[in-house]
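Human: Note token order:
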Amino acid sequence: MHRPAVPQPAPSTGYVRGVTSDDRRGDDADRRAAPTGATDIGAGTGVESGVQEAERRFPRWVIPAIGVFWVGFLLTFVARDVFGRLSGLFVLLLVSVFLSLAIEPGVEKLSRHGVRRSLATFVILLSVLGASLLLLVVIGTLVAGQIADLLSESETYITDSIDWVNSTFGTQIDPEAVVNEVNDPNGRVQEFIQAQGDEAVRLSVAVVGVVFQLLSVLLFTYYLVADGPRLRRAVCSLLRPSRQEQVLRAWEMAITKTGGYLYSRALLALLSAVSHWVLFQSIGTPAPVALALWVGLVSQFLPVVGTYLAGILPVLVTLIESPVSAVIVVIFIVLYQQVENYILAPRITARTMELHPAVAFGAALAGASLLGAVGAILALPAAAMVQALATGWGQRYDVIESPLTVHDPMRPGRSAPDRDES
């Protein structure tokens, strides 16, 4: 029987799958020398330690980010402190910008008639300052005279007032007892008057500060208007021609809206002054012209609450003469304020500033919350400028016909409803 040949192993050449016999002998010797499982544990420990070390290592951006955070944090505190210290200066600059925009049209007219721009600016500022000082002198003289009259005839005024209260409300107040209480040097009235000495000193210091701020505003305003063309050229030189047109158009719009604001306020002040003058003249209030001008100006340049604040002075002056007349003044002030809010102001403001009454009211409240009385005064022209700039952005389209877009409903005798043009 024939048997198949059995393959014989190839002769050893020293290489098995790329590993030499010397390497196998070395590995065998290492395994015999090392304890059981030492090789696997050592290999696993090295890999794990490398991974843990990589995990403990921060990314490269962490340390710069921490540095930027702390630098920004410190700069925020520094900027906040600097702004707090310079907030008064910022308010003065803001008022100066407003005044410069307001008197710019007048300066331009004088300049076109051959007057140097610096001289025209000085003349207009001097005129505004003179009119303001004249009004303050007139009002101050009136108040001082009324106070002196009140102090010299205090007993007569007290007796007449108490007699009116007793006859009107049926009370039994003794006028002589009240006069004695007022004249008692140890009484509460005299103690209160003596305690106002320190307040008078503080008031005098405050007046000096106000005068200094007023002079600062006038100085800033003078330079802003006198060097207005040079300032605008410097700003436009940094911009492309297309941007220059936009900046100059916005600048012109700011001048127009500020002038419209002053025109509307002046017109409302004139109407208020005339109306109150007629009342004061008819009831015999002292200095009716001065009091009417006071009410007209203060009520218009302090929106919302200006009428009530301005009405305090004429009410007190009238109360000295006649309590009944003082009540009439209060009623008239309240009624006129309603007429102005709902009839006069919306029409005049809409035509001169093109500002919605609700926007004007909200802007006045926001400005008063931010900067007090100054913010309330400056809020209206600022809102008008923002509204004008906002309406000029974007493309406009024709509005479709709908009952929701009709301004007024159909009225008898009209062929079609009125519509707002877009």
Observations:
- The mean pLDDT is 77.
- The first strand starts at residue 15 and ends at 16.
- The beta strands are 15-16, 19-20.
- The chain has two domains: 62-238, 241-392.
